[in-house]
Amino acid sequence: MTSEPLINADRLWTRLMALAEIGATPAGGVNRQALSDGEIAAWRRVIGWAGEAGLTPSTDAAGNLFLTLAGRDRTAPPLLLGSHLDSQPTGGKFDGAAGVMAALEAVVSLAGRGETPVRDIVVVAWMNEEGSRFAPGMMGSEAFTGERGMDAIRAARDADGISVGEALDRLHHAFPGMAHRPLGFAAEAYLELHIEQGPLLEAAGCAIGVVTGIQGKKTFQVVVEGAEGHAGTLAQQERRDALAAFAEVASALHAEIGAVDADIKFTIGRVTVVPNAPSVVPSRVSFSIDLRHPENAVLDAAGARIKALCQEKAPPCSVTVTPLVDAPSNVFDPRLRASIAGAARDQQHSAMAILSAAGHDARHLAKVCPAAMIFIPCRDGASHVEHEWAEPDHVAAGTAVLAQVLRELAFAPAIEV
Amino acid sequence: MTSEPLINADRLWTRLMALAEIGATPAGGVNRQALSDGEIAAWRRVIGWAGEAGLTPSTDAAGNLFLTLAGRDRTAPPLLLGSHLDSQPTGGKFDGAAGVMAALEAVVSLAGRGETPVRDIVVVAWMNEEGSRFAPGMMGSEAFTGERGMDAIRAARDADGISVGEALDRLHHAFPGMAHRPLGFAAEAYLELHIEQGPLLEAAGCAIGVVTGIQGKKTFQVVVEGAEGHAGTLAQQERRDALAAFAEVASALHAEIGAVDADIKFTIGRVTVVPNAPSVVPSRVSFSIDLRHPENAVLDAAGARIKALCQEKAPPCSVTVTPLVDAPSNVFDPRLRASIAGAARDQQHSAMAILSAAGHDARHLAKVCPAAMIFIPCRDGASHVEHEWAEPDHVAAGTAVLAQVLRELAFAPAIEV
């Protein structure tokens, strides 16, 4: 370990707070939608800071922002690290932005030391991680890794009818001189720092989470169809009451799927009843299912059981179960995780292994290169809220760990895959 | 029984169809809201027909319309018969209007025969039975019977912010010369014809339903309170999931309350989930309960059990059960029911005893004088829909039965109460 500081913690915090001014909400949060004027302004600010340290900006067809520190071998696959600059409509200062600024600070500090890495180092801000303006999210990393095609991505529209394609063209138009990279390139490794978005680090008093992986997620849309009737006249035994059937289905799902094991997460979060009038027997109930588990075998079995249970409990109503998201769990690279744990130990930060319950761009990067994530605590586990908060010490600790891992990789031979 | 026809069936049908032109919807239904221009126009048309037969219009503070045929003893309590002229927004031609036009036809036919009844006969159109513009309904009959005070009634507002008071003043302003009666007066008896709004008469092939009473009804608003959480991070055993608790409560209520006996009607018709987002554990579910039964003892016991079951099944969430409507069943006057059954028999119309599952103004009149109702079939049991339909023969049969009962009462000594 080097004896001089790996990062400038004051500069990092000052820049992170300055970035939070762009799209600031009156309640102290941030509203910085993907491809908006706010995100364009955030790009300009970040590009300015990167430029002072000699990093070169570029973009790609998916609107990802890359800031490159040149290495000795420009043809070797670069190290990639970053997160995203977009936020939820009533989001906070840290979700995404902390990861981009941590990556930039680590690279700027390294560059400031005058050492030239063996390969390029690229800070990245992925386009539309949140998915709040254009659904679904993680568009930039999915396009980069070939998970989704650009035609489908460009066709998505926001609530005002503006397409991603139009918004992307507008973004690129705002940076006319910027170099365009081909979409997707081989990377040596990917690192991402993020706030935990959960309460575990705070509860354990740990500054650093060594993320083991991202738990798998399946979502479904279920529709129970019955028949409408007058609440005062239709005999109980003649009814095909969609709400009564839904209650049976939901009760059975919570009891069985919710009790698979201690790691399962089962949620019915959205319910729509038709016609939803007090004196009318409901004809239709549609509802969402969100199912998560770190082990894919358990997730798959639970997912299959959901459909069977719905069909078992819905009669005399009919039921249709439509799968939407099907994202298996992933396990982050063991060597990168060991490097993160080692750096935390060196720097005397308390650390623990932690599973990411939420999705991140790193999920997609892990399919194409060794990838890992560093979590830092956030107050009360709250995120996607305006009072989202991470302590300056934790932001600095996570960034210093990231900087140490980066430094080890930047001067090491290629990782054997 | 008289050998000449008791009513003019063609005139009745023609007038009923002419009335349906006021507020007619493109799909063949009627939208004639309480105290609207449509209801004012309907008043003018009905008052005109009544005037041709010598009936005198009057109103009261509650905006009820009275059309009086003078009897020999003007001080004796009059016979009262009628229904309502307002409709649901996508209502039909018969719900309410058939009862007013049947009453008018019965009285006009009687007057046309040149006979003077022993007491006044008053056709009534009650204000705001439906409760769709101003909630809740049955305002006119509740004010008439002293069930609700005029201050509370006048304060209710429609979706545009117009109060019942303002709308009532506007109605009265539209009929400047009309006499005002004091609110509420002693009546000798009350009779109301109505479409069944259910499938029983049609299924049994009966033209006449001798209504035994109106089943009791209780409604409740239930709120289940839990705690919001992230669907991906909050452990299942840590959750206070309001939707999971609702499913337990609703499932238990349907299973137990819905199976009390063959006459119970139990409906959860409206459900509101907060925040109702797929990836958020719901913090709050509020829902409506509509409970009906012809026997008050059963209704009361089931109502009490609802609260206990909610409290038993909701934990770890909390629950509050707020009673709203509490309308006991009523039994219509046995002598009037016998008169209706006898008239149907005389006229060779098939008839059956039937319980009203829906509420009617007669519910309130039955508290202050002998009251009864005649039901006629409606196609497929459908009402509150634009394709609501009653056959001309059934409208005529019900009106002729009403006319015979009216004639018997009009020349008989007072009913002993």
UniProtKB/TrEMBL annotation, chains A, B:
Q: How is the cofactor bound?
A: Binds 2 Zn(2+) ions per subunit.
Q: Where is the Peptidase M20 dimerisation domain?
A: 213-315
| InterPro entries recorded | Amidase_Cbmase, Bact_exopeptidase_dim_dom, Peptidase_M20, Peptidase_M20_dimer
Q: Which cofactor(s) are needed, names only?
A: Zn(2+)
Out of the domains of life, which is the source? Bacteria
- One Pfam family matching this protein: M20_dimer
* Binding-site list for Zn(2+) 2: D95, E130, H384
Which GO MF terms are attached to this record? hydrolase activity, acting on carbon-nitrogen (but not peptide) bonds, in linear amidines; metal ion binding
User: What are the UniProt keywords, alphabetically?
Assistant: Hydrolase, Metal-binding, Zinc
Residues binding Zn(2+) 1 are H84, D95, H194
Q: State the family it belongs to.
A: Belongs to the peptidase M20 family.
**Protein name per UniProt:** N-carbamoyl-L-amino-acid hydrolase
Organism listed in the record: Bradyrhizobium sacchari
